[in-house]
């Protein structure tokens, strides 16, 4: 029975730690009031992000999308095979530690600056 209590205690502590971490996560709307659009390229400048923070992309899904890409995809405005494509118009993406890259892969949009790079500590 003692092992059962110990396992339950560990589970409770793990749940409390996860809830605490989730409570600390910040939620950012990409582009602020303007949303995810052509002017959002410099939106992340000067902001501090942590792993677990959530980016909310709000946009017209008939005109844009959000693609999570690697550094090469960001630099070259290309969509690597297997890239996650979001297209709901109200997407929530949790940041991983390190560099996180996002583009719109509608023709010409990324090249026009519709891309962001976010570094999460």
UniProtKB/TrEMBL annotation:
Residues 1-25 form the signal peptide. GO terms for molecular function: electron transfer activity; metal ion binding. InterPro entries: BlueCu_1_BS, Cupredoxin, Phytocyanin-like, Phytocyanin_dom, Plantacyanin. Keywords: Copper, Disulfide bond, Metal-binding, Signal. Coiled coil: none annotated. Residues 26-121 form the Phytocyanin domain. GO terms for cellular component: plasma membrane. This is Plantacyanin.
């Amino acid at each position: 029975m003692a092992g059962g209590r110990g396992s339950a205690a560990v589970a409770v502590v793990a749940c409390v730690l996860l809830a605490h971490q989730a409570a600390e996560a910040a939620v950012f709307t990409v582009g602020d009031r303007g949303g995810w659009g052509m002017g959002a390229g410099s939106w992340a400048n000067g902001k501090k992000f942590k792993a677990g923070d959530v980016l909310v992309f709000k946009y017209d899904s008939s005109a844009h999308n959000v693609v999570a890409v690697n550094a090469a995809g960001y630099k070259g405005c290309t969509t690597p095979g297997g890239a996650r494509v979001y297209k709901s118009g109200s997407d929530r993406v949790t940041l991983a530690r390190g560099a996180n890259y996002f583009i719109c892969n509608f023709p010409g949009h990324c090249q026009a600056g519709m891309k962001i790079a976010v570094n999460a500590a």
